[in-house]
Amino acid sequence: MTQTLEGSPALVLNADYQPLSYFPLSLWPWQESVKAVFLDRVNIVSEYERWISSPSFKMRLPSVVSLKRYVKPAHTPAFTRFNVFLRDSFTCQYCGSNNDLTFDHLIPRSQGGKTRWHNVVAACSRCNLKKGGRRPEQAGMYPRTMPIEPSMFKLQQIGRRFPPNHLHESWRDYLYWDTELEP
């Protein structure tokens, strides 16, 4: 099977050979990895069987690269919709569904609630509409787990439960999921 260039991203590792991120997985398109090689910003750790060339050079396409300079990971994650869903394992905190997720303010904004880690949970559209602009005790709807501000470590740990659809064999030694890698 011939791998397309677009289907040949490079796994990006920090200088300590740990992925920069598990979810989303730290991948660069092939162009970025080749550019980083030429700018001497990365080491090539592993390569695809595919060659790329220009009139003046030829090289194998990198499948795993490591940064030459260590990038210190952030200690606190950004508050984003995606990170709220990740913290809540992409599950409605009221009914357990993983379809049509939104986020819900425990103390509604109309009642002075803020858009912050401790006041927002993942909720499916149905539960969010059912709860409406009421507090949990008013609606009789309580989240399965109370919202907290997660650490980056905790988000990475949760992200490992959601491996991407494609994992190249050369990435095996650097990624830690409980599932088998595809051939």
* Poorly predicted runs: 178-183
What value does the average pLDDT take?
89
* Beta-strand residue fraction: 15-25%
What's the tally of helices? 5
Helix content: 10-25%
Compute the CA-based radius of gyration: 21 Å
Summarize the helix and strand pattern as letters: EEHEEHEEHHH
Q: State the total count of DSSP E strands.
A: 6
Tertiary shape: elongated
The first-to-last residue Cα distance is: 12 Å
Major β-sheet strand ordering: 2-1-4-3
Class by alpha and beta content: alpha+beta
- Give a short account of the largest sheet: 4 strands, mixed
Explain what the structure shows:
The protein is α+β, with helices and mostly antiparallel strands. It contains five helices and six strands; from the N terminus they run E-E-H-E-E-H-E-E-H-H-H. It has a four-stranded mixed beta sheet. Strands 5-6 form a two-stranded antiparallel ribbon. A hairpin with a 4-residue loop joins strand 3 and strand 4. The protein is elongated.
Features:
two-stranded antiparallel sheet, four-stranded mixed β-sheet, disordered C terminus, elongated, alpha+beta, 183 residues, 5 helices
